[in-house]
Design a protein that fits this description.
- The chain has a seven-stranded mixed beta sheet.
- It has one domain: 2,3-Dihydroxybiphenyl 1,2-Dioxygenase, domain 1 (Roll), CATH 3.10.180.
- By secondary structure, the protein is an alpha/beta fold.
- The protein contains two helices and seven strands, in the order E-H-E-E-E-H-E-E-E.
């Protein structure tokens, strides 16, 4: 059975994302680059990864179709199997699976309309 293995990212929207990024850098030491802040974690090279944290402009469509201003990305060990299991539970996938250098991504909505991003990291992610 496929499973969630951790949190891959936390993303939210703000009216002035650059100003808010500066606040987080100045006050909390979180340096948000072009693709967000990347928090690396793990016990050793065989069990390591990272969690991305980023702020999007309030007009971004990244959280759509949800009306909420955030998305949580969950790391998944086998995305295809996980999506099949969700389909059997009548959880509908939103959009198509997308593949990038960093891995495979898919999206679903929870019963409250929160957009959930599922990510099967590529090797070394």
């Amino acid at each position: 059975m496929a499973k969630i293995t951790g949190i891959g990212g936390i993303f939210f929207k703000a009216a002035q994302p650059e100003k808010l990024k500066e606040w987080y850098k100045d006050n909390l030491g979180i340096d948000v680059g072009e693709f967000g802040a990347n928090f690396h974690w793990g016990e050793d090279d065989s069990k390591s990864g990272s969690t991305v944290w980023n702020i999007f402009d309030k007009n971004s469509n990244y959280t759509e179709p949800s009306e909420n201003n955030f998305v949580i990305n969950y790391r998944v060990d086998n995305l295809d199997e996980f999506l099949s299991e969700l389909k059997m539970r009548r959880v509908m996938q939103y959009g198509d699976v997308q593949e990038y250098e960093t891995g495979k991504f898919a999206w679903v909505l929870d019963p409250y309309g929160n957009k959930i991003e599922l990510w099967e990291p590529s090797e070394g992610q």
